[in-house]
Amino acid sequence: MGIRTIWALLMMMMIIEVESSLHRVGGGKYNWKPDVNFSDWANHQRFYSGDWLYFGFDRTRHNILQVNKSSYEQCIDNDFIFNVTRGGRDVFQLLQPKPYYFICGRGYCLKGMKLSVNVLPQPPPSTTTVPIIPASTANTLIIDSNAFTIATTILTVFIYKALYFD
Predict the structure, then answer these.
(1) Where is coiled-coil annotated (predicted)?
(2) What is the full DSSP assignment across 73-129?
(3) Is the distance from CB of 78 to CB of 14 less than 8 angstroms?
């Protein structure tokens, strides 16, 4: 294993990545349509800030409007917050932890084409468990991901100095 490979592996260990998911609204490729229970679908999902909603639909018949709670409940399609509609295979990123409301205008909201999602904050990074087995007893050490990042950084500096300055 070369020096550059070791360096690259150590650098990758320090990267903390926030994951996001793509949720296909209604559960399929083209499910933004009447007669789909979007409430039931949303209740079986977990949405986090940074996640994406994918809407697949016939753009000649349907649209996607982000609205407030009152407009969602009453199916009011004027004074919307944002028109998500672009081409029939559209995405919307859920940036903040809060409730989001979407409806289809053109009368289809009254036929059930509406979606409410409650977005949660990103969960904290998981901790890393490293087993340590001393000669006398066996213990498990829990290392916080920040401590792991700091330890990896220090180790990287020592390896770098040993390889290039000794």
Answers:
(1) none
(2) HHT--SS-SEE--SSSEEEEE--SSSEEEEE-TTTTGGGT-EEEEEEEPPPPPPPEE
(3) no
The answer to whether the predicted template modeling score (pTM) of the entire model surpasses 0.85 is: no
Per-residue pLDDT of the chain (166 residues; tens, 9 = 90+): 555 555 454 444 444 345 789 999 999 888 999 989 999 999 999 999 999 999 999 999 999 999 999 999 999 999 999 999 999 999 999 999 999 999 999 999 999 999 999 999 998 876 655 555 555 544 434 444 455 555 555 555 555 455 445 4
CA distances from 31 to 28, 41, 69 (A): 5, 11, 22
Is the separation of the CB atoms in 111 and 105 below 8 Å? no
| Whole-number Å distance between alpha carbons of 145 and 16 | 9
Report the amino acid identity of residue 53. L
Closest CA to 71 of 80, 83, 60: 80
In sequence order, which residues have a C-beta less than 8 Å from that of residue 17 and are 6 or more positions away? none
